[in-house]
Design brief:
Blueprint (H helix, E strand, L loop, with lengths): L2 H21 L5 H8 L3 H14 L6 H9 L3 H8 L5 H14 L2
Helix pairs in contact: 2-6, 3-4
């Protein structure tokens, strides 16, 4: 498959992932970290890194707004709940298993 086709497919899959995560605001970042080892903030960091490698200016807030579909502070106020003791314990166990 030509690289341009692969890039287009990967871009489409990434857009669908972002749409899915925006639709599933009930899924907390801590749960994503425990189960998958990454969260929305990780995606934003990767997006910012890719922009930097491409010579494009994108700060952390811009990257997070792209991933969340709104400013991070707004998403956090609307959707983020305080982590439960169970979530924190699962996160710590996951972190110990998989490293920093």
């Amino acid at each position: 498959m030509p690289a341009t086709d692969t890039n287009a497919l990967e871009a489409a899959a990434f857009r669908r992932l972002l749409a899915h995560l925006r639709e599933r605001s009930d899924v907390q970042n801590i749960d994503l970290m425990v189960l998958a080892g990454f969260c929305r903030n990780c995606l934003a960091d990767w997006l910012q890194q890719a922009a930097s490698e491409a010579g494009l200016a994108m700060d952390r807030d811009q990257a997070r707004e792209h991933v969340y579909g709104m400013p991070f502070a707004d998403w956090k106020a609307r959707h983020q709940r305080e982590a439960t003791p169970e979530q924190l314990a699962a996160f710590e166990a996951s972190r110990r298993r998989h490293g920093p």
